[in-house]
Amino acid sequence: MALEQIAEVVQNEKLLDAIEDEFNGVIVEVNEPMDPKLFHSKLKTSVSHWRQQGKKGVWIKLPIKLVSLVEPAVNEGFWYHHAEPTYIMLVYWIPKSGNTIPANATHRVSIGAFVMNQKREVLVVKEKIGKTLKGMWKFPTGTADEGEDVCDAAVREVKEETGIDTEFVEILSFKQSHKALFGKSEIFFVCILRPKSFDIQIQELEIEAAMWMPLEEYITQKYVQSNEFMKDITEKYKEKVDLDEVHTEFSIIKKKFTQNFLLSLRALVSSLK
Question: Quick one: 73 exposed, middle or buried, by C-beta within 10 A (0-12, 13-18, 19+)?
Fold first, then answer.
């Protein structure tokens, strides 16, 4: 074996395994236990090597079982980027130029659902948890799961909370708010759904009660009247009901508009991650 090849083998043994990303950076995934001191040594050598190669961002993905390796990485200038139930992601910017590492997801997507039967009764729930709306009648709400479309999230949340099967009709309105859960922003979509079943079976863990409430009674609630957004969307919903736009079949134009809107929405949400 040539001396150059031997030197390369020795060098590689001192480096952390990594793959290149599409932005001239590297991603390190450590899956097997490693002594923190050995990891620290390899990390220092690796960063120096990547600096010579002109690399930019360095990502380190550590499973929760290897949390002991976080401190050595932080001591080398790495910082937390995000965490999931099974891992933590750290990142480091090598160049002295401005850092272009994208921020962690800035928004979460939440939904609310108007569901009305042929008797002009809307589906409402009382939640067991939460200080703000506990004990108040409100339409079902929830948060979209990762990779889940808004329309599917609305149908799922209604099914989980009330046992009612529904189909998506359209998005009635949406709003953006800031400084929500843990300081993140939130986009809240209010969807109109059409019921396919009517017998309520509540989710006992989170829901205290659920019922079909006359639309006019729902509108007069203090909670609805005192909240500008809720009052506005409820009035818009009533206008649609009065014009019989909720339970009639969609026109081809409305179907096309809804499909195009959801495609644009999916692109928007992806850009915020």
Answer: buried
Q: 107-272: which CATH topology?
A: Nucleoside Triphosphate Pyrophosphohydrolase (3.90.79)
Q: Read off the tokens for 47.
A: 């960063």
Reported as a single tens digit per residue, the pLDDT across 149-194 is 999 999 999 999 999 999 999 999 988 888 777 777 889 999 999 9
Domains of the chain, by residue range, sit at 14-93, 107-272
CATH architecture of 14-93: 3-Layer(aba) Sandwich (3.40)
What are the pLDDT digits (tens) for 94-105? 999 889 898 888
Q: How far apart are CA 33 and CA 163, in angstroms?
A: 45
Q: Is 187 helix (H, G, I), strand (E, B) or coil?
A: strand
And the tokens for 27?
Answer: 């991603």
Active site residue 160: yes
Q: Which residue of the set 76, 160, 186, 206 is catalytic?
A: 160
Residue 262 confidence (pLDDT): 62
What pLDDT is recorded for position 60? Answer: 97
pLDDT in tens, 2-41: 434 434 434 556 899 999 999 999 999 999 999 999 999 9
The residues, ordered by sequence, that sit 6+ positions from 120 with a Cβ below 8 Å of its Cβ are: 214, 215, 216, 241
Q: E strand or H helix at 238, and its extent?
A: helix 228-242
Give the number of other Cβ atoms within 10 Å of residue 95's Cβ: 13
